[in-house]
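Page 42, continued from yesterday. The earlier attempt failed because a stray header line got pasted into the input along with the sequence. Redoing it now with the clean sequence only.
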Amino acid sequence: MSMSLSAEFADDDIATMLVEMENDSKRTFEKKFWSLPSDFEGTQKIRFLPQSKSLGEKVFYKKHRVHWLNGIPYECLAQTMVDKNGKLHEAEDCPICKYVKKLYAIAGDEKESEEKRIAGSISAKDRYIFRIIVRGKRDKDGNNAEAFPEFYEAGKTIFENLYLILKGGEYGNFLSIAEGRDYNLTKRGKGRNSKYDGSMPAANPSPVFTDKEQLQTLIKNISEMNFDKLIEFKPYNEVKEAVNSFINPVGEDSEFSSNSAKTVVGATPSPSVVKAVTQEETSIEEDIDDILSSF
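This time it went through. Structure tokens are written below.
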């Protein structure tokens, strides 16, 4: 005999659940990074800001490595870095890296395999965090808000572009507050087909601001934007559980066995795997730190 809905849930329970559902529909999550709208195509002027001497920085960016599993980012545990709590995380074995290595081992020399595709989609990616000014930024009341910088995270395409610009010297120190340049961030295509290779500094140098009050506000805000506060390492066991859930979405136990690896790569990829995109990226051997040491 089936149980009626009214018998299974009391009216108070339904009312409470509806309130929570309404709250969830309105709830917004903290947005760490500024980004262009997904459907945006064209050019947005931004300004990359220099390293903060008050924070003891040598470079104007923060490099870290991130895995994506089921649409959730995980800092790679195999990196030594200060986290948001000011604690030094010492590099340790990373369960995701371990699983990626197993997938590549299964694939062997086969160039076009499902194992390699999935391994590439969840392997750790180099990400670079910058502080930027978004030209034309307005607050909720419509006032100019450019003096309130944003964190911007990008991949190797933008990083290598900045490296080559600095190395070439044609645009000078485009990071300079007084004599630098805005940057034309140009986006072509949408979603996984987005390209940023046409992005370049503005033709003419200019100060960040000519207004003294704006400049003072900017300098103060930069000093309060510590990159480390964006870094959060999940506990080893939590990352391991995330890998197990990725391999066996239905909750079957997995210890990264070769059978489970073959099962997941042989099945129809989950939406999260399909969404994962890998880009062919050219590594740069030289260190941008050296270029910036003279600034």
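Notes: Confidence is low (pLDDT under 50) at residues 1-9, 24-29, 257-295.
Reminder to self: strip header lines before submitting.
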